[in-house]
Design a protein that fits this description.
Length: about 70
Amino acid sequence: MSWITLRTTSRRWEAELMCQLLTAHDIPARIVDLGITSYFGSGSPAAVQVHAQDQWAALLLLSPIEVDDNEP
């Protein structure tokens, strides 16, 4: 089964949070490190990957919530 990179981030903790969210919804996910850990503790670049068949469900779960500005 092939893996697709869904998101990349400059902070590994963000990737871990996304991975936990996807796993909680029964979507297999993994984190791939993209670089070395920074010296000042801001994290290392990482990518979140999912199976190709779960791509659209994962994108919907990780997308921002749309807010209608016209509602009172």
